[in-house]
Amino acid sequence: MTFSELGVGEKILKAIEELGFERPMPVQEAVLPILFEKETDLIALAQTGTGKTAAFGIPTIQNLDYSNQNTEAVVLSPTRELCVQIANDLTKYAKYIPECTVVPVYGGASIEVQKKALKKGAKIIVATPGRINDLLRRKYIDLSNVKWAVLDEADEMLDMGFKDDLDFILAQTPDTKHTMLFSATMPDEVARIAKNYMNDPKEVTIGVRNSGSANVRHCYYLVQAKDRYLALKRIADYYPSIYAIIFCRTRSETQEVATALIRDGYNADALHGDLSQAQRDHVMERFRCRNLQMLVATDVAARGLDVSNLTHVINYNLPDEIEQYTHRSGRTGRADKTGISIAIINLREKHKIKAIEKIIKKKFEQVPVPTGMDVCEKQFYNMIAKVERVEVKYDEINKFTSEVVKRLEWMDKKELISRFVSVEFNRFLEYYKNSPDLNVKEKEEKQKIDKKKSKVQHNDVGMARLFFNLGYADKILPQRLIGLINDTCDNKDIKIGKIDIMERFSYVDVDGYYANEIIEAFHGETYKRKPLIVEAANARKAGADKKSKKKQNSLPVETPKKKEAKGDKKNKRKDRNKDTDFAPKKGRKGRSRRGENFF
Ligand code: AMP
After folding, report:
1. How far is the CA of 335 from the centre of ligand 1 (A)?
2. How many Cα neighbours within 13 Å face the side chain of 62?
């Protein structure tokens, strides 16, 4: 079907042809005929990048009444970047309908400028919920004549805590309007919004419900938690033309990974909520125009980033809410391109992969982390391919080459190639010389964990004492230890008793029921890059005793400092280091845990 056959009018047809839209994308093919045939409420489950802006934008522009100056359409989107993007797109589609004025209003920019733009007239307002709410309350916007309300990325808006704003905004629109809801996923909250605000909506699903894009390959690398960064570097080196977003869980992790990549000579930068808006804009612009190859980002900060052609999405750590994975992976494989979504996981996270597979209705492939030799081989052939493709400016270099040809005459062809390639290639060979295999050998690891677990002993009150190789020297306090246990063992309400912290290690009494789980959870984990050892305290003592017989007095006898665990409110928020700069208000139910002192 062509756009014209779907019912798109001449003026819009001309504009989109100029944009190079040759044929409708699937979401447009599904949505346009419905909305052209009858004005109706509509739910479309489609990822960003599938062409959904045109799917709701074209019929909206075509169906408005341009004989008056009322605002007749409002589009709500979660972030300012998306808001600006949508407004720009709609303006382009309406290029030959000058009466169709599109005004974006969003937070983080001058409200005065936006007020002025609104005063001139806005047929369509594209807005973030917070800012339009503000303008509505100040009576700068009148939505009483709205015919179309569009909720774009509804799941993201709810995720970011905009539910009350949406309620208020939609209450300002007349009951006669039609509502379109676009969402990548259909969690219960979105279904509820649909039920509350929509009237017998038509439903369109592009791809499988809650699924990722069909063009995305989902892979995971199984490594020790401490090797995550090394695995990331291998991936970056293995794909020399990588153009990727690397997702981290927290702002500090994001900054840490980006700083390490920059230090190691990669073309990368960080995007997170500790940066000012101007800094974020700058980083996003550099990434958009591909001056940056890798952007290390939190989920929240990356929301507003609209970039096509990503080759990879890398989950440096999987998101806490696995639904979020769909949003992450949906950033690659857009507009008929293929992409790869990679998760770097440890043994303990395998269950998360299973849970994600259920949501996306696709299987992950376990891919071995490239060995040093794999990387070198790939880089080698990449260099050769570059040589084959490079444009040679013969006129300009001829004056030098004759001299050089004479100088290098003594080398044969193979020698010459080897030397030229080595100029670049040696650093890879050097770096990857003797590089370890990062792949986890599942069987061996499980045996190691089982061995550690077998030593756990419970006391009279059902508590078990665990050894942690972290002490005051690591700037560890009881609260931090409790926080670490809470963070590392997902979603458990683990009782914690006496905590003895020494200079270089600690003992923690934990609910015996969870002792094995804690040991397993910490296996292969790191704390500030230090590989962690967590095991039954008695196992450690027995081992330590044997050694200490040989090296008596070599270790000072440590007595615990008088600091014990108190229920610490701070630790209730597992996500206190999360990127919350865009003010998500959603509570994290069921995740708060306390450390309790039973002694
Ligand atoms: P969206 O999902 O609206 O963000 O669109 C993703 C990208 O696809 C944008 O860059 C659009 O300009 C582009 N696009 C939308 N529809 C078409 C089409 N029919 N043909 C080619 N490109 C399109």
Report:
1. 7
2. 25
